[in-house]
């Protein structure tokens, strides 16, 4: 029988964590090699019209360029070109025309936690991600690449990002990430995955590490980090150790202040809403109701209480 110090248990229960499969959901399918998304022009322009009507985020400035103009600039950047040789600069006219400056203290970056970050940001209402801005919204989760012959884009197969250094979509996201970081102001938030056995939470070669952190504007004061952990899974990367140590160094060397929180309650509650039957969420519920027998529960993997926001 495991005897648990009740105060330890209390603290541990509150530091419940996250899941991998659920919050690492994004559009990337390594085996996919799909061609350019069907009806890409209509999808792009339709999204653009809809962004102004139903997706409009009150604090973000409206873009003056028309949806047709934006499509032309985006298409020109990669069409009729080899898919592996699209320079970041090609997207500059589109990026310049579609840029919106995000209000101070509202920018949210993420690595490995696509779904969770967008849920936490409430799709632009609490925090604004690149994909909540028009630049990212129009391109998110679609595939594209060029070819020299008509119609100028390949409908059957686009290379994987890892197959070539300047893949059409990878160059886009690099340029978009830089632009997004250059416009950030005040305190920025970064959400990371602390439960991936194959990828460190912070990597210098991630888009965040390569294109966002190095391009943060001088108007940024602080980088506030949330490390999320999959519910009932080992906590591999935590604040103050491993890759988070490296992140603190990289952030403070650039003159920003740094703070890091493992599994803040607001994030934990989101995870428990998706997976209330996980062991950690069930324990938390029992604890809240006061009907937990401490002698029957193993201590959690780490014991930090995080009161955050
Ligand atoms: P990540 P991160 N091949 O989760 N952002 O820090 C293909 F095809 O590791 C947004 O690198 O975090 N896709 C988007 C890949 C894309 C590959 C890039 C690969 N080898 C950057 N590697 C976006 N919305 O798609 C990674 N990906 C794709 C900006 C895959 O879709 C955001 O502002 C994965 O979900 C955010 O702050 C996504 O790239 C940061 O950079 C992110 O990879 C996230 O890039």
From TrEMBL:
Keywords associated with the record: Disulfide bond, Hydrolase, NAD, Signal, Transferase
Coiled coil: none
Pfam families xrefs: Rib_hydrolayse (PF02267)
Keyword Cytoplasm appears in the UniProt entry: no
Residues of the signal peptide: 1-26
UniProt xrefs under SUPFAM superfamilies: N-(deoxy)ribosyltransferase-like
Family that this chain belongs to: Belongs to the ADP-ribosyl cyclase family.
The protein's name in its UniProt record: ADP-ribosyl cyclase/cyclic ADP-ribose hydrolase
Species for this entry: Elysia crispata (lettuce slug)
């Amino acid at each position: 029988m495991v005897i648990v110090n009740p105060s330890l248990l209390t603290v541990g229960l509150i530091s419940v964590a996250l899941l991998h499969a659920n919050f690492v959901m994004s559009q990337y399918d390594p085996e996919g090699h799909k061609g350019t998304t069907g009806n890409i022009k209509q999808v792009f322009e339709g999204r653009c019209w809809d962004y102004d009507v139903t997706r409009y985020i009150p604090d973000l400035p409206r873009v003056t360029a028309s949806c047709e103009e934006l499509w032309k600039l985006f298409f020109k950047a990669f069409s009729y070109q080899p898919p592996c040789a699209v320079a970041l600069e090609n997207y500059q006219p589109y990026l310049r025309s579609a840029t919106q400056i995000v209000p101070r203290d509202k920018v949210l970056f993420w690595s490995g936690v696509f779904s969770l970050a967008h849920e936490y940001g409430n799709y632009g209402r609490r925090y604004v991600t690149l994909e909540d801005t028009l630049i990212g919204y129009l391109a998110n989760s679609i595939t594209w690449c060029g070819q020299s012959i008509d119609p100028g884009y390949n409908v059957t197969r686009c290379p994987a990002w890892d197959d070539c250094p300047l893949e059409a979509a990878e160059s886009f996201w690099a340029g978009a990430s830089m632009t997004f970081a250059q416009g950030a102001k005040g305190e920025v938030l970064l959400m990371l995955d602390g439960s991936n056995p194959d990828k460190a939470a912070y990597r210098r070669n991630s888009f965040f590490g390569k294109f966002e952190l190095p391009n943060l504007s001088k108007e940024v004061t602080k980088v506030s980090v949330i490390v999320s952990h999959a519910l009932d899974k080992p906590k591999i990367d935590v604040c103050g150790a491993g890759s988070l140590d490296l992140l603190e160094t990289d952030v403070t060397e650039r003159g920003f202040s740094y703070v890091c929180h493992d599994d803040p309650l607001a994030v934990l509650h989101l995870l428990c809403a998706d997976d209330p039957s996980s062991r950690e969420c069930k324990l938390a519920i029992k604890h809240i109701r006061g009907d937990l027998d401490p002698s029957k529960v193993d201590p959690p993997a780490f014991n930090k209480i995080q009161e955050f926001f």
